[in-house]
Specification:
The complex is a heterotrimer of chains A (252), B (186) and C (452). By secondary structure, chain B is an alpha/beta fold. Chain B contains 6 helices and 11 strands. Chain B is globular. Chain C contains 22 helices and 10 strands. The chains are: A alpha/beta (252), B alpha/beta (186), C alpha/beta (452). Bound molecules: iron/sulfur cluster (SF4).
Chain lengths: 252, 186, 452
């Protein structure tokens, strides 16, 4: 952490704001516990990801401009979502007149776990969380932001999330058969390819269940919302939490 | 306009950016080439035999029709090389010599001059290849260095017997070509 | 039919769909294991990708080199701008030779050109000799996978088929037994064919030779017994030098099936004495794709099939759900270039998970191209986000929830709509998934209260 205490903005994805306020609260509290000064620019809106992924990136000029204007003056922008971070970095149209700010912003936006490991340089988090935890590596964070080694690549294994979780007392990391397979949410895919989306979600849940996970966690509430929705419909007992909630609970 | 000039013309009109060809670096290879080669052949479902074993099998009548291109087995060869490969339709065993082997994958390099007829290693029911154990390279980069600019009309890497897994991914040896690859290191 | 409809149908047979998923995952797993034994794996991918970059920037020159060298070696070179011309060239060679029956080994290009029906119309018997391809040919189906053509079939189905076609014992579904029956059947075809057709894995500009890889040895069985060998090659299959084969061959079989090399890798440089060798260089949309900057490097593909094996969609929807010759992720970026309207649902048949791009041995950025095709498709269809709720193109967006799901509108909708409507089958999202419970307050509300 820089001594002059940088300005950190919280970027809370719209569905987290609306459906999972506790994830926003945990993210904020966690960062504060780690010594950050964080503010939440209240004018923020949806980043435009659902539109862009549906093939309407060109219609997201307004949301993108708004995003840049909202966040451009901060030193860092941190979001509890790999997917939204990837979107603002890679899938936003270039905004005339704000090119410089936009380019700078791309280097200042971080997903929560990478912010903690790469910017705050936190090597381990100490606390207690005596549960069997399965980690769902959301694809956009996994292969888009490279938050963990990809099972397809021949590279040294690493995982930023695991690094933060593994020292918590009592936490048992559940080893999955397919460590980084997609859950089938995929934004509009969840609706346009409903049958596949559900099947993929069921298969992901199955992997966690057979390996005895008690809590399924991850860095993206969108995937978790989808998985939780299927589990709840099928009366599966797995619990669901964002990694920010676990970390925040563990060190309190 | 001919299709040739149409296709080439379309490509030329794009005036694409020219990117340089990369150099292939030198990669480390196994420090025990023979051991790696044998392991590779076995995992491709080839078999490792000795000269004596093959002689014995031929003598015991396991392979009635034998074509041997190699001097070591000339005395066992009872088939002349035909001009029409169809005449080898019922050949039981072909014995040829490979030029060199590749440790990383068990591939053995052969050219026209090693085969007699191009169909030989495929049409024979069983194929035996003799290979000098000193003629092994580590990987495919070394292999192609060794092939160099050879001008054989046909060149071939054989790494195992004919095989398929097209039915439920179950491995079956002996699809269309030789049902076995018997490798003899000399 | 659109991809979602086909996929839903495939998933109806849950047990078979699960088997399909697990079998292909197993192939991917083998690929992972073997690629991890090669320390320079990522370097090889990078090299392969760079060599192909160079090829795409100099394709005209390499094609001319290839033609010159091949011709010098006695190979007859033909050029076909499209499928029709390709088929006509093949037919004219067959007619000249008075040939009525041919054998063909795995060639995705001839599938793409629909060569079989074309030749059959002219009274020519075409026998696909790759076991998997023969199986699907008996069923009048196209291959469902570019490397594993019959992966959509269970051995029981193949047993029934062979019982009917090859008079094998009823109920005997032992793969060895069935393969043996096919061997006997195809041996006869090999011995009877005067002309053999093969595809091409690599054409080498420097030497004018071409390389064909098989495990079964069917390509070689065909061509070495026939008087005439016709090789059909897409123009993007060119590589500059013979030495470059080392890079591609190290990657190809490992990526495809997890084996270190195919059991046969044949290099055809000139015809055997008294024989003929032809090669047809086919464009059929490739130069158009080369002109599309965003999609150009889809032409780097070496057809290993790894992106299919890894794709969570392909594994659960089967190859036929794509209704294109090349299915799976790579098919979904190649096919819209051939017919944007027909294949408009394919780029949406993805979660953009990116596994395909990471598995691809030539590092094609497949998932980024899927995203880019989506932008093109909505533009071409003249749709706007407002009309999302209406049917877009082939009706892929069935519900307004498609875009509201993550929008703030959703919360309002949830507040005002009764459960019955949210869980109405039309509201696709909620069909098999519960929606999250609505919290008392949003994060923004909480923040105002607590930190404002
Ligand atoms: S796109 Fe890549 S992974 Fe897919 S078939 Fe082609 S080379 Fe293989």
């Amino acid at each position: 952490m820089k001594p002059e205490s940088p300005h950190i903005a919280l970027f809370i994805p719209c569905y987290v704001d609306q459906f999972y306020p506790e994830v926003g609260v945990s993210t904020l509290e966690l960062l504060e516990k780690l010594g950050c000064k964080v503010s939440y620019p209240q004018g923020q809106t949806c980043c435009g990801q659902p539109m862009a992924n549906a093939g309407f990136e060109r219609n997201t000029v307004g949301t993108t401009r708004h995003f840049i204007e909202t966040f451009k003056d901060y030193d860092y922008v941190v979001a509890p979502s790999g997917s939204c971070v990837l979107h603002v970095k890679e899938h936003t149209p270039s905004i005339p007149g704000l090119e410089k700010e936009q380019a700078e912003l791309h280097h200042k936006v971080y997903e929560l776990t990478e912010f903690i490991t790469d910017v705050l340089k936190v090597e381990r988090i100490d606390g207690s969380y005596p549960h069997r935890v399965g980690y769902h590596a959301s694809c956009h964070g996994q292969r888009g932001l490279r938050l963990a080694s990809s099972s397809e690549l021949n590279e040294e294994p690493f995982s930023k999330a695991k690094k933060l979780l593994e020292n918590l007392a009592g936490l048992e990391w559940v080893q999955l058969s397919r460590t980084d397979e997609c859950c089938g949410f995929g934004g509009t895919f969840a609706v346009t390819e409903e049958a596949l989306s559900i099947q993929m979600g069921k298969d992901r849940l199955e992997d966690h269940m057979v390996h005895g996970a008690e809590i399924l966690t991850g860095g993206d509430m969108s995937c978790i919302m989808h998985l939780q929705g299927i589990a709840s419909r099928n009366k599966q007992t797995l619990q669901f939490k964002h990694i920010a909630e676990i970390l925040n609970e563990a060190i309190s | 306009m001919s299709s040739r000039s149409e296709i080439l013309g379309k490509i030329k009109s794009l005036k694409l950016e020219q990117k340089p060809l990369p150099e292939t670096p030198v990669f480390a290879v196994s420090n025990n080439l023979e051991e790696s080669f044998v392991k590779s052949i076995l995992s491709n479902k080839g078999e490792i035999w000795t000269l004596q074993e093959l002689e014995g099998k031929i003598q015991s009548g396991s392979f009635p029709k034998v074509y041997a291109k190699v001097p070591e087995f000339k005395s066992f060869s009872n088939q002349e090389l035909p001009s029409d490969p169809h005449e080898f339709a019922d050949l039981d065993l072909a014995i040829i010599r490979g030029q060199f082997g590749v440790a990383e994958n068990g591939a053995i390099w052969l050219e026209d001059s090693d085969l007699g007829l191009r169909a030989v290693p495929f049409i024979a029911e069983h194929l035996a290849i003799l290979l000098d154990r000193n003629q092994l390279v580590g990987n495919m980069h070394q292999a192609y260095q060794k092939v160099g600019m050879a001008e054989s009309g046909f060149g071939l890497f054989i790494a195992g017997p004919s095989k398929t897994a097209d039915i439920e991914q179950s491995l079956v040896i002996g699809a269309h070509g030789a049902r076995s690859l018997l490798l003899i290191l000399t | 039919m659109s991809h979602p409809v086909q996929a839903a149908e495939f998933l109806q047979d849950a047990a078979k769909a699960k088997w399909h998923d697990e079998t292909l995952w197993f192939v991917r797993d083998k690929r992972d294991k073997i690629s991890h034994t090669i320390p320079e794996w990522e370097q090889l991918r990078e090299l392969a990708s760079k060599i192909k970059d160079n090829v795409l920037g100099n394709l005209d020159i390499y094609l001319e080199d290839f033609e010159r060298n091949a011709t010098k070696n006695g190979i007859k070179v033909h050029w076909a701008k499209d499928a029709e011309e390709h088929n006509a060239i093949v037919l004219s060679i067959l007619q000249e030779k008075n040939c009525k029956a041919i054998v063909k080994s795995k060639s995705i290009l001839t599938e793409e050109c629909h060569l079989n029906p074309y030749l059959e119309k002219s009274g020519i018997e075409v026998v696909d000799t790759d076991l998997g391809e023969r199986i699907v040919q008996f069923l009048n189906q196209p291959p469902s996978h570019i490397v594993l053509p019959a992966i959509h079939l269970k051995k029981g189905e193949i047993s029934d088929l062979f019982h009917e076609k090859l008079h094998t014992e009823k109920g005997n579904d032992d793969p060895t037994y069935l393969t043996q029956a096919a061997r006997v059947h195809l041996r006869e075809k090999f011995l009877g064919a005067k002309v053999a057709i093969t595809g091409v894995n690599f054409g080498i500009a420097e030497t004018g030779e071409f390389v064909v890889c098989t495990n079964e040895g069917n390509a070689d069985m065909g061509v070495h017994l026939a008087d005439v060998h016709i090789a059909c090659m897409g123009i993007e299959k060119i590589i500059p030098k013979r030495q470059h084969l080392s890079v591609f061959l190290r990657l190809l079989a490992r990526s495809a099936t997890g084996q270190s090399i195919t059991n046969y890798t044949s290099h055809f440089r000139s015809p055997a004495a008294g024989r003929e060798m032809h090669i047809i260089l086919v464009d059929n949309g490739r130069t158009a794709q080369l002109g599309r900057e965003t999609f150009r490097n889809s032409l780097k593909c070496i057809r290993c099939g790894a992106c299919m094996n890894t794709c969570p969609i392909y594994r659960r929807s089967g190859g036929f759900s794509y209704e294109s010759t090349v299915p799976g992720p790579i098919g979904s970026i190649l096919s819209p270039g051939l017919d944007l309207k027909k294949y408009s649902t394919l780029p949406f048949a993805s979660t953009l998970c990116g596994s395909c791009s990471d598995v691809c041995p030539v590092k094609i950025n497949i998932h980024e191209q899927l995203y880019a095709w989506r932008q093109e498709i909505t533009k071409a269809q003249g749709t706007s986000p407002k009309s999302l709720s209406m049917s877009l193109g082939n009706g892929i967006f069935k519900s307004p929830l498609a875009y509201k799901i993550s929008g703030t509108l959703m919360r309002a909708a949830l507040k005002t709509l009764p459960d019955s409507l949210i869980y109405n089958p039309l509201n696709t999202y909620g069909k098999s998934r519960d929606l999250p419970e609505l919290p008392k307050e949003s994060f923004k509300d909480w923040y105002k209260k607590n930190r404002g």
